[in-house]
Specification:
Aspartate Aminotransferase, domain 2, Aspartate Aminotransferase, domain 1, globular, 2 domains, alpha/beta
């Protein structure tokens, strides 16, 4: 098919909710390591990684070799049969969860399914129904996961959530309480107690949160936030579900899971994306006594299939063998420093935040008012495309650039990113000035 035939087929045969970046959809044909090529042969430096999914580089040869071998051996048996790749993956995950306390896994096909499994597990264990999520959160695209999501733009017009309430998140740059950290005494976290007493029955099943909020714009909370919240949630009988769909597998640098950066022990972890390096996988891993509460019959036809399980374990081993968690911390700090240098020169950058190789750049029309610059983000996306750089966008107001390259990039890749990104930023600022007649 030609490029136009592909674009036309997308328009005619896919749901319109399947949106694309850019005014004209980018048709991708191949990828390798940190690069992606479009149908016209243009090469792009990928600093988004398929929405925080490519962890060890596109088409990683070490990972692919193990997958190819498995493809010729056993491809599918469903969860009603035992198989070695699924068992080996579950054992490997149990070895690296925080404190080694989460040791029982359930595999599915996506982060949405992983979160659905976690909700059912928590309700079975506690006997309670209500679940607390955070404002600005994103937990998936199913009906239940959308109700957990704290962002109207991703709720498809669904009515008010049933069984979910949304607490104040730790968004210091736009504190809804109008306070300033650290003199605020982390009021956003301490509000959890009153929220439970006034907006729930007082008996909760769980609290779910992303250690760093992904779709929300890589919102990074104060370091005390989750420790305070966990104490309150436990007081009311709830479990702590850490949604690591975007923060897991070394992405935040130095640790396997994002929640470890905050010194908190969750009861359940959900994940997907980077665990498969592009393969469809979802993971729900819990403390044994919590997992054991999910009694009765259930099945995942494709979850834990031998091919995907082989790929996921190969990804974990590659991250470990090549010390990519350390690389994410070191190269991530280098990336952060480059972006903060740009922030000092470009008033349109309101905040640079994140951790490791998960970095958000919030654009504003004015630093005093912090008016979201969504139009500038859209213009910047087009400019970076022209400069052969792939990045993402997000945020409740659509004004945050999301940066999440593969974990095995180098500082030279960051240097190249910085050149292309700042050139794109300068182009957008020049166009804005010309539009304002300055």
């Amino acid at each position: 098919m030609t490029k136009q035939e592909i674009i036309l087929a997308n328009q005619q045969y896919l749901y319109p909710a399947v949106f694309h970046y850019y005014k004209e959809p980018l048709v991708v044909t191949k990828a390798k390591d940190q690069y992606v090529w479009d149908i016209d042969g243009n090469q792009y430096l990928d600093f988004f990684g398929g929405i925080v999914t490519v962890s060890v580089g596109h088409c990683n040869e070490t990972v692919n070799a193990k997958v190819h071998k498995q493809l010729d051996t056993l491809q599918h048996v469903s969860t009603v049969f035992a198989n070695e790749p699924q068992a080996a993956l579950a054992k490997r995950i149990a070895e690296i969860t925080p404190g080694g306390k989460l040791t029982k896994s359930f595999f599915t096909n996506s982060g949405t399914e992983a979160n659905e499994t976690a909700f059912v597990t928590a309700r079975c264990y506690t006997g309670n129904h209500e679940i607390i999520a955070l404002r600005h959160s994103y937990h998936g695209r199913s009906a239940v996961a959308m109700q957990a999501t704290g962002n109207a733009g991703w709720r498809m017009g669904l009515s008010a959530p049933s069984g979910f309430v949304h607490a104040i998140n730790g968004y210091c740059y736009r504190c809804p309480l109008g306070l300033t950290y650290p003199s605020c005494n982390v009021r956003c976290a301490r509000d959890m107690d009153e929220m439970i007493r006034t907006s729930t029955s007082g008996k909760i099943a769980a609290f779910i949160a992303e250690p760093i909020q992904g779709v929300g714009g890589f919102i990074t909370p104060p370091k005390e936030y989750f420790e305070i919240v966990q104490g309150i949630v436990k007081k009311y009988g709830g479990l702590f579900i850490s949604d690591e769909v975007q923060t897991g597998w070394g992405r935040t640098g130095g640790k396997w899971f994002g929640i470890e950066q905050w010194g908190v022990q969750p009861d359940i972890i959900t994940s997907a994306k980077s665990l498969g390096n592009g393969a469809p996988i979802g993971l729900t891993v819990a403390r044994p006594e919590v997992a054991d509460a999910m009694k009765g019959l259930t099945i995942s036809t494709f979850g834990g299939n031998p091919v995907t399980a082989t790929q996921a374990k190969a990804v974990i081993d590659y991250i470990d063998d090549h010390k990519l968690m350390i690389n994410a911390a070191e190269v991530g700090a280098y990336l952060r420093a480059k972006l903060e240098e740009m922030q000092a020169k470009h008033p349109i950058i309101g905040e640079v935040r994140g951790m490791g190789l998960l970095v958000g750049v919030e654009l504003v029309e004015d630093r005093e008012t912090k008016a979201p610059a969504a139009a500038a983000v859209n213009a910047l996306m087009e400019a970076t495309r022209e400069n052969r750089l792939m990045i993402g966008k997000g945020g409740t107001w659509g004004n945050v650039i999301r940066i999440s390259p593969p974990l095995n990039i180098s500082k030279s890749d960051v240097d190249e990113f910085a050149l292309r990104f700042e050139a794109s930023l300068a182009h957008v600022e020049k166009a804005q000035m010309a539009g304002a007649g300055r």
